[in-house]
Structure formats: C-alpha cells, structure tokens
Protein 1
Amino acid sequence: MIQPSEDRVFRALEDLLSWTSRRQQALAANVANQDTPGYRAKDYSFSFKEQLDSLTMTTTSEKHMMPLKDTSKAQLYEVGTKEKPNGNTVDLEREMSEITKNGLQYITLIQYLSQKIKTMRYAITEGGKG
Amino acid sequence: MNLFTALDVNSSGLTAQRKRAEIASSNLANAQTTRTPEGGPYRRKDVIFQTAGFADSLATALEPGVEGVKVSDVVEDPRPFDRRFEPGHPDADADGYVTYPNVNVMEEMASLVEASESYQANIGAISILKTMINRTLDLGK
C-alpha cells in the first residue's frame, strides 16, 4: 500500500520540478537580455536545498512532517549584480553557472522520481514475478 | 510547458543577436561605400534591444516578470562622416575631399565578437534545457 508519506513525496517532487522549470525561465530571460539596456537580472527567492532537505529528511513519526514551503509563492527579485554603463545588471558568468546548477537540480529530481516509480512498479509486479 | 517557454526565451535571444551580427556585418561590408540609393555615403546602422513578451498563445505560459528580447529598431548613427583628401576619386568634392561612411572597423569587429559570445551563451542555455526535457521524457523508463 502506498503510504501517505509516499504520496506526499510525489506531490512535493512535482511541485519542486515545476518550480525548477519556472526558475529556468527567469534565468533564460536573463541570458536573452544580457545586452538589453536597462534590463535588471531577475531570479526567484527560494532555496532548492531547503526544500529538498525537508523532503528527504527521515521522520520517525507521522506527526513529524516537515512543512513544505509553497513554491508557487516564490517571488521574483532583482539580482544585486553590478550595473553596466547601459544600466543592465546581467552577469553572464553567474547566469550560466546558475543555469547549469538549476539544470542539474532538475535532473536530480527526475532521477529521484524515476526511482520512486521503479520501486512502485516492482511492488506492483510482485517483485518481478508478474 | 515551462521548459518550452524557457526555450522560446533563449531563442528570442538567438534571433536578436543574429540580427545584431547581421547589421555589424553590413556595416563592415559597407565601410568604404560612397554611393547609396539615397545618395551620399553609407551611414552606420545600430540595433536597439528591447525586452519583449510573446504575442502568441505562449504568452500565458510565460511567468509574470519574465521576458524575452527583440530588436525593436534599427537606427542610423548620427555621427559625422569621415572626410579624406583623395582628389583622384570620382566622388571627390571641389576641394578634393571624399566623404566616407562613419563606420569604425574596430567598433564593428568588437560588436561582432560580442554578438557571437551572447549567441553562444543562449546556445549553451538551450542545450541544458534540451537535456532537461529529454530526461523528463525518459521518466519512468
């Protein structure tokens, strides 16, 4: 039987995946606008690590649920990087490294989710007998 | 889907940078052009970048505050033309001076290099996005 906590993990993973892909949009916009005069680099104020920690933390009781933050409430904020003479604040090196990081985080989540699905399928097929 | 929208944002960057490279190439090619259909020498052109949303159905998928980029305008450079003393030139004026375009080759080369680097950054972002999308498609396999 699927434990309620398993269901919660699925929902949290879905939420995190959606947030990571939204963040990729903001980072993509920063790269696209690296030469647009007056453009301010933007990012989401939300910690991937915090969310993942609260998701993977071992709980010894059903009552020990760690509250997950609502990722849909993550706000766009202006990244405080140095302004260029044309008023643009995109730091390309920062953006490229964030894009790489965000991409890897996304793949990590996919891998995790994939493993969960595999485990479930294994159970469904009676441990491989079916 | 969010990832596809990010792909569109980066491709808007590609289009804008390519246009910029095209204009810089045109400036370089015409650095010595003394005759144009409008009369007079060639005048240097420049692109204006502007943030842009998407006008089509994708607009709904774009997160608020997230914008692509477009070349909103191609403007002419108002700087004065270059006058050189070449009495033998067919376009020389009464004093023997020929009016050459206001194109600075070094400036155009710098602009081309910059456009190419920006283009590559967008390509890099797109290739990461492609990996993300492909992994999603393999989910559960």
Note: The beta strands of chain A are 42-44, 76-78.
Protein 2
Amino acid sequence: MKRIVALAEYCLGCGLCAVYCSALHTAPDLDLVRAFRQPKRLAAGITVEKNLEFAVARSCRHCENPYCVESCITGAMVKDPLTGEVWCDVERCVACWTCVAACPYGMVTISQGPHDQHPHAQKCDLCRNLSEVPVCVLKCPNEALVLVEEEGVA
Amino acid sequence: MALNLIRPQFIVERDRERCIDCRVCENQCANGVHRWDQTRREMTLDTSQCVNCHRCVVMCPTEALTVVATPHRFRDNANWTDKAIYEIYHQAATGQVLLTSMGNDRAHHIYWDHLLLNACQVTNPPIDPLREPMELKTFVGAKPDRLLNQRGEIEDDLPPQVELEIPVMFSAMSLGSISLNVHKALARAAQELGICYNTGEGGLHKDLRQYGKNTIVQVASGRFGVDIDYLRAGSAIEIKIGQGAKPGIGGHLPGSKVSSQISETRMIPRGTDAISPAPHHDIYSIEDLKQLVYSLKEAVRYQKPVGVKIAAVHNVAAIASGVARAGADFIAIDGYRGGTGAAPLRTRDNVGIPIEFALAAVDNRLREEGIRHRLSIIAAGSIRNSADVIKAIALGADAVYIGTAALLAVGCHMCQKCYTGKCNWGIATQDPWLTKRVNPDVASRRLINLLRAWEHEIKEMLGGMGINSLDSLRSNRLMLRGINLSDKEREILGVLAAGE
C-alpha cells in the first residue's frame, strides 16, 4: 500500500504539487501551459495549508475503511483491493457529494474537467494509470513529499 | 519624502503567454516583487525590490520568468560608473556605511587562472587513478621535528592530527550567518566524506554534537557559545583572528536574527545583537596569542590540534611565522576573495591580498625558517573548483577550505544580499518561512556529490602529473607554470613561466 507522506518541516508552501496534480489529471497528454489553458481544469487532489511560517501539503490518506467509499450511493468511489488506492470512477459518479461530506479530512472535492459532461467527485488517486510515482512527489522541489510503501493492503 | 534617485537594477520579465498564474513566484519571493492583483486576477510586479536571486525563475513551473539587468544607463563614463554613482546616491540618502555580502566581486586578476599544471609525456608515465591507488589522505596538525627518534626508529609520537579523506573542508560559517539546516547539511556531508566542517564563531548547536569527529570548533573574538564542552566537542579548535572578506573588522549579527535557537547556541539573550569585536581583547601580540593557544590546548589536554585563522594581509608571512611560534598546529589563511555574510563594501573590495600570493609567501617563509613542519597550512578565499585545490596544494597548502562553493552547491545564487536576512534560498537567514527551503537531506547529498566529483578530478590531474600521493605535490611548484604574469608576480609565487 502506497501513501504520500508530507514533511511539514520542509514544505515550502509553494503549491507546485497542486499545480502539477491538476495539470496532469486535466490533460495528461499536454504540457503544463496548455493544460492550464483548458477552459475547465480538474481540481488538484492535494492542497497546501498555510499559516504564518507553517505549510503542509495535504492529500487523501487512502484510509483502511474509507468513509467516502462507504457512503458512495452508486459505487463510483472504490478502494482497489490490490493496491489499496481509493479512487472515483467518474462515469458512475452522480455528483451527490455524499463523499465530500463524509470525508473527515476534507480531501474529496467537487470538480469538472475539460471533457467531462458533468461535475464529479475528485480526489488523489496516487496518479494511477498516469505516473509511476505520483506527480506531486516527483515535482516537489524540496522533497517534502515522500512516497512510502507499507506492508499489505491498508 | 524626497525623490529617490536609485532606479531598479533589474527587470523581471513575465511571459504572459506562458504564465499560468499559479502564484508560486509570489509565495517564494521574500522581497515582495511578485504580487497577485485580485481585481485584474493576474500577477503583477514590483521590480524595484528584485535582487536577482533567481528564486522565482527557478521555481516557475512554466519558465515564464526572466530577470535581466536594466538597460537604463547613465551617460558612458569609465570613471563614474553606474555603480559608483548609485553608491553616492545611496549614501547621500541614508548616511549609511555600504554593506555587502559574499566575496570580493571586482574584476581583479584571478591568479589561479594564471597558473598551469604539468603532465607526463613519454619520459615519465602518467598514472591511471581508475587502475592504481591514489592517496589523497591528509593530516592537519604539527609534524615531528625529525623522522627518526633518538633510538633510530621512526618517530610515532605525533602531535594530535585531524585526518581528512580529501584535502577539502567546509570553511567557518557561523550558525546565525547561515541557518541550522545548512549547518546540518554541512555536518552530515563532512561525516560522509571523512572531512571536517567548521562551526564558525556562532557556537555548536546541540543537534550537531554527534558530528564532533568531523567538526572544527571556532573561538572568535566574541567567544560565542564557547565552554569546555564546546571545545571538547570537535576534532580541532580554530582561533579566528580575521576573515578574508573583512580583515581588521569584527562581526555584527543583528538582534532580529538572534532567535531562541541562536540564543541558546551562542549563549546570549534572545533578540540582542551579537557583536564580535575587531580584535580579541586578550590578544595584542604573538605572546598573547600563544597564551590563548596553550590555554585551549590545556583545556583539551593536548588531544586536539589548535589552529589560527588569519586574513591574508600585506605582511602575512611574518604573521604566519609568529603564529607558528605561538604553538599553533595549523594556520588557515583567508584570501581577499573570501566570502562573508555581511561586510562593509569598501573593506570587502579594498582590503587584503590574493590567497595565491599569501599562500606562496607563507609557505616560503616557513620553509626558510625551517618551521614549515610545525604547522599545516589551510588555504581559503575563493577556491572555485578542483583545479584551484590542486594549485593551492602545489603552492604549499596542506588542505583548503571552501565556503562559497559549498553554499553554491546548496543553492546559493550569489545575489550578495545575505546581509538583508531575506535569503530566498533559505541559506543566509533565520526566518523560519525561508530556512525550511534547505532540506538537509537534499543539501548534504549535493555537497557530497560536489566533493566526490572534485575528488575524481583531483585524482585524474594528479595521475596526469605522474603523482600517486598528494604529499608529493605539496609545495611542488615545479608542477606549476605561470602565464600572463609579471616576473615579480612569478617570483612571489615561486613558479617558472610557461615554456621555461
């Protein structure tokens, strides 16, 4: 089970993690500038919280028993039994926002991509099918985001 | 308010085609150059605050930013340059001593670049360092007067030594002038590389005591953080008399930088100015210096070498001779290009002499007097690459200190604004929002990479000269030739001209 661990001690609060996350999920085949020029852009699955000198990038914890999955009324939000990744099947999402309300960490957001017909739940999917290592981890300029692998399925 | 005559030096150019308004530049600039205009919903610029540190340029994910020098110029005047005129404007407006940081940036000769190295051809074979062992190990400390003792055996009762795997150390940069994260990176890199870093005059933070074997602790005129545990914590003690960037001048860490961390380490109240006097008030002669050297040796039971760091000034050779006679185990000589966290501009740019001359003069003098073995020489003051290291050793150094090069490895962009305390690279600052920009894991890795690369290069060049041990190069000026140097300059450096 992979998890993104944020090291607040070295988080610059620059927000590049969110920039790259949003761009990659919006338009995986486009560069950053073009991705940002899309009429609609998916929300980033990672958010930087800042207060004075403190900053930390928060993203989904891919919980053992995720409330978002439990609460999903259509079965769109699923936890991959093999990898433990929690992700949203956009096709099945009916935009009821139960998951948004259910997530105690506020890590599910409402979003609409450039090609989507309807808004849907959007969250960190650990860049499944997009990048071997999550793009936020790859692009963090201070190595404040670390991908850790834990034993077994969480 | 009267008219401000100083115009911005730099222009930040934003390519609107590439800018994605991500606001990374805004949150990375401690000088407030980039700002988000909420009404127009786009980034705006205040270029007057730009110091050309490149933080925004490097962090911008779309390469939308460039910093260029302003094309705005005064009428051409070789004497009254723009720099000279603006300095007058600044002083006329403020009445202040001009401050600056890092080493002398004047376009004087860089003598390293006027020295050429030898290599083997036909009559003597070069050595391939990938196939044959190459010894770079260096011992800093006094050596015995003779090789054999009275019984005719090899003298093995040596004075204390510091063992270095490569002849390069991180020079004194205090906690205060740079952040704790940079100190951590230097300490970890020194441990991994088997060399030493120098605490500088700001004491030794408790988290860094574990790196004692790879630490040289400094005792400067302010005596910050000095107690018996501090003296015993390192593998050597260095008495700081002077610094290349500001010979004859003390130091001043403003109270605003004296955080609880600095206060604890320096053993001074939080928020108070940390002032290092220009002289040590107990040292007015070589005899006084000798007292301090022996007090410190006594304190560490003669188990650690005690050295003296001086700035390269006009009569450096005579001073070095005195330092040797004061019982120092090593002398660090800091040339006029040596860096600083803050120095008066006039002092930095006009005081002191090049390390190349100082080093050659000191080595000559100590040899003439037959006391060269009594102390090791550490050369400092702008060692920029492995070739400079080799040349320094051929001129007579045992090892070198690097400060600026190390900071560059950590990310410094040489904007020379350390004294403002707003280092956007998180190095020369105590602002917690900025200091975390140096992740010690990343920084120590880069320092290790740098010196591993230099180590390979040094071995290559040594091998090319047919030398397999650094000891055979020390003071071996026959391996050097001068180019574009006057006869007098070559005479002082003790090198022949190219072609001779």
Note: Chain A touches chain B at residues 9-16, 19-20, 32-33, 36, 52-53, 139, 141-144 (CB under 8 Å).
